[in-house]
Amino acid sequence: DALVSSQWDGDRDSWSEGVEDSNWQRVTNDHARCTGRRCSHIRQCSFYRARERIEGADVIVANHDLVLADLALGGGAILPEPEDCIYVLDEAHNLPDKVLSHFSHRLRYGAALRWLDQAGRGLIAIAAADGLDATVAGSMNSLSAALAELQADMREQRSLWESLLDNPENVDADRHRFPNGIVDGALRDSAAALASANAGVVSQAKQINDALSRSLEQGGFEAPREQMEEWLGFFGSLILRAQGAEGLWRAYAIDALAERPPRARWLQAVEHSNGDVDICCSPIIAAESLREQLWQRCYAAVLTSATLTSLGNFERFRMQQGLADNATYLVVQSPFNFAEVAELRVPKMRSDPGKPQEHTAEIIEQFPVWVNPDEATLMLFSSRRQMEDVFAGLPGDWQSRILVQDRMSKQALLQSHRDIIDEGRGSIIFGLASFAEGIDLPGNYCTHVVIAKIPFAVPNDPIEQALAEWVEQNNGKPFMEISVPDAAQRLVQASGRLLRNENDRGRVSILDRRIVSRRYGREMLDSLPPYRRVLE
């Protein structure tokens, strides 16, 4: 984050929290005109100014996304080489999910077609500008023709991909997942052709980019310098987009039977888009990427988090992270005396969360019994639908006390909650998974955490489905080996919203009788901090 701020002085508000792929592309676009490190205007490039500042640093503060963006580029492109670094990674339990995001591919078919059209017209306009060498202008027109041909090929093959969403065997009507990641012959041929076409676009665009860059350094074109720098930015963006598309199509063109484990591949209809579709590919486990890109290269690493263990051991964490057998693990005792300052209550309930309508109805019915309107409550849901249904089912006087996630920005919601508590009134937050982690409401800002049900992963997530499929085919038990340990870890994170410092007091309520009635539930219960228990 410190590095990112220095790259975008005066424009920090335009950044989302963290550096995701789209933001990393903005950084790369900014210095796309800087080819190699010989560029004559290197001192004006914010990227290289930032790099110069960190070269002499002993300690560099960055977030997970920036570290992974560097590793995705081979390491040493943004940050120092991994071999020269000792990494101290906080909230390390999030690292595998971040890795899956960074090493995944996604292409929106209709949007890609529109971009190809815009890029082609942009190239024609640049080629017609004054001050360009005739050879380079001709190369631009040739590249524009290549983009038009690629666009035509994609239009011709679009129905081949979109027709899969009409498959009656799809579990989700808006999604088609390829079992075992296997793409059939016609689709693989289509993907291979589109990958090759995008590779050609990248090659031509790089040649033009190099010619413009040489002219900027050595002179030769009569176009104004500012104009040429804009063109270089355009070509930097074009190269990145085409490389991303090439990576996606190559991931679909390879033989999934040779992958261990296979990647998840799926198509997803895009909501409110007039029929657009996302074509997606992702690793299903991060272990191999982390092992190859980070653990086998870095000088050393220290991983910390409040939730590295799951069900009382490090096994799930070790498997997710791809850690070496000689890694050292340590549980540090908490400073909290949990039994004295907090209570864990599991109330009597008639319903089973496996029957969501009955469970939701009972929560609405018993809500006034379980929740004190005059205190600060954080209620966490695993399902947006259940959150909305519970809110809609409550009387108006209760609704007026509740702040619902996404009705306003996260920052504004938390500030409103604090303001209400500071006025001496009660406030209730309804939140989803993002409110179960990283939320800091110390003291009177949170004295009751309510967990609607055990936070199992969404059963229709295509990556989770592909992972479960692979584990099962290797004689494993996905529910006990993946779902239960991961849910136990999320449960610890959710309950951890209660005690933020040594002076905090309060209670945690879990509205899911499976925590005491099922064997796996009792294991989860025992993995929670040793709160004083009230099991009704």
User: What's the shape?
Assistant: globular
* Main structural class: alpha/beta
Q: Overall mean pLDDT score?
A: 88
Low-confidence stretches: 1-42
Q: What is the share of helical residues? A: 40-55%
- The number of E-state strands comes to 13
Number of helices: 20
Largest sheet: 7 strands, parallel
Radius of gyration: 27 Å
Straight-line N-to-C gap:
46 Å
What share of the residues does DSSP label as strand, in percent? 5-15%
In what order do the strands lie side by side in the largest sheet?
A: 9-10-8-11-12-7-13
Helix and strand arrangement:
Blueprint (H helix, E strand, L loop, with lengths): L1 H6 L13 H10 L15 H10 L8 H9 L13 E4 L5 H8 L2 E4 H19 L6 H29 L12 E3 L7 H34 L6 H29 L10 E6 L7 E6 L4 H9 L4 E4 L11 H7 L16 H4 E5 L9 H15 L5 E5 L3 H10 L2 H4 L2 E3 L5 H13 L4 E5 L16 E4 L10 H12 L4 H18 L10 E5 L3 H4 L1 H9 L4 E4 L1
Parallel strand pairs: 1-6, 7-12, 7-13, 8-10, 8-11, 9-10, 11-12
Antiparallel strand pairs: 2-5, 3-4, 4-5
Helix pairs in contact: 2-9, 4-5, 6-7, 7-8, 8-9, 13-14, 18-20
Characterise this structure.
The protein is α/β, with parallel strands linked by helices. The chain contains 20 helices and 13 strands. Strands 9-10-8-11-12-7-13 form a seven-stranded parallel beta sheet, sandwiched between helices. The longest helix has 34 residues, at 185-218.
In brief, what are we looking at here?
It contains 20 helices and 13 strands.
